[in-house]
Predict the structure.
Amino acid sequence: MSLVLSGQGEKTSPLLRAARKYSGHLSYPLALLGLCWLLALPCSFWRRAYFSENAMLPGQVYTTFGTAAHMDAMLAVDTVLAAGADGRAQALARAFGALGLDTEVQRFSYDEVPRIGNVSGANVHGILRAPRGDAGEALVVAAAWTTGDGASNVNGVRLLAALAQHAREQRYWARDLVFVVTDRGERGIEAWLRAYLGVGAAPLAVRSGQIQAAISVELPPAQRYDALALYFAGKGGQLCNLDFVNMVQHVSRVERMPALLHGLRDAPRSAHWWARYRQAARLLLRQARAQAFGADAHGVHAPFLRYRIDAVTVAGQPAGGDAAAQLARQGLLADVDVPPIPGVQRIGRTVEASLRSLNNLLEHLHQSFFFYLLPANQRYLSIGDYVPASALMVASLLLQAMHLWWMQGAASLRADAPETRIRRINQSYAHLRLTMPASVQIVVRVLALGLGLLLAPQLAAWAVLSDTTTTAFLFTAALASCSLVLHTADQCWAQRGQVDWRQLKSLAAALVAAVVACLAVMNFSLAVLVYVVAGLPLLVTRAAAVRTRAQRVAGVLLLLAVSPVCTMTLGRNVALGLHPLDMAASPFRVFLGDLHHFGSLVYPLVCLVYWPVNLLSMVIVLMP
């Protein structure tokens, strides 16, 4: 309340008087400075990666994977394939049992989105009991029958079987090894984890101890692989411990099979600075997309991170000119024969060395960073390097909110004459009593519409989420939003003395600032995204005087261009990797499915922040 009084002429501290005087001029430079800070992140001032956990001893073991017995284990998977899609779970369980593993087949079913698209599947896991442990802790090696983009991952399952054969031959394991194969990708692993951990599912009969770390293996159809792609972001923006990423990259270099972040090679040191900048920016953008949307279409590591289990995916990259890989990309080849041992030996030894390093740990990974950005291989940016950008963005919104709050009402309320101070304070209270109910009513209206968008698909999913009605539902929601905006604007013109656009914009800016500030310490990429799509348009709304009807129409059209429906339709290929014409796999369904299965925040933020703030911006443009 003191801020309200101070803004209307009462004696204040010098700091508050300066804030009142310059807040309107500082908000836009701070927003620009925050964006420039982001643009400076790809510049070459990164720190070199290092190990905080010395007990892992990465790359200091003699790897032995790649014998004839391991080739036989890979060939045994072909007999599993002969059993067909229905019988391969039992066939794989028998193959695991022949290797001496304790096995179990888990049957499960799930809805793609609430009460729509019931899908069933089967998980198979085998546990190698540690010869030198007490079954209190475990390491997981996981693979799916298909890759994230729908290609066959039979080579990954073959490698997993060979690794199980190799692990059974060794006597140095201090932790149990759990080998998991699923036929439903991340959803299957999520179902397996819930059963393993006893979270909302029937517990597994065959299980081990607490899972310390997990490695997902993905090998698309190919005969030769010359590098590995490394993925490490979860569905909710969670990241594995940085030591885990550094360890996998280190042992992969030792085995001459480099693990590249998101499959991107660094620009040569001799390259022009602009080429190095572009490559670093490209890698950071891929990480931002994966962290904000959970859009990594590789591996099954993401569900582990949700349960605070460090996990990564190592995905083989086919060598250039590999005929099998080219045919698979064209959809002309489903599976390939077993790759020659030299083709997978280095990948297997990389996973073997990674498991050996994890086996050396005395406790859970905790010493290194859990918040970081990786602009290049073996380089990192800590949270202290990038979070100031979000602080500048939040400050720009807060200063804008303070400035507009102080500037609301008639110009006579902002006079500095001391003899009229008491009268101006009373007039300010009267103005708030008159205008605040209308502003709160408008905010409640748009939030109620957003809440309806959030709840309707979950309460009546059959009516709004079939492939033929998803687009119609969004179109209807967009029409309802436009009708609400026009009706609210019409009411504002009818009650010109009882509404104040500055007050409404101040409340909206404070809302976005609070959301961005909270998200910045949990999911930095998602916080920046919310600021860009919701905060920036709000910040520039009515930044200049709006006097004519043409200016109002132009402002509304610009806000429609950055509305949720437009951005989700036009940005589907960039953000989620969806085909522009694939209307069945809409971002709407993807976000809702991630909320249903993994607790993702993207869909609630779209409904309760992005959409309402966009509507509020339109109302502000149309207000008198």
About this structure: The first helix runs from residue 2 to 7. The chain is about 55% helix and 15% strand.
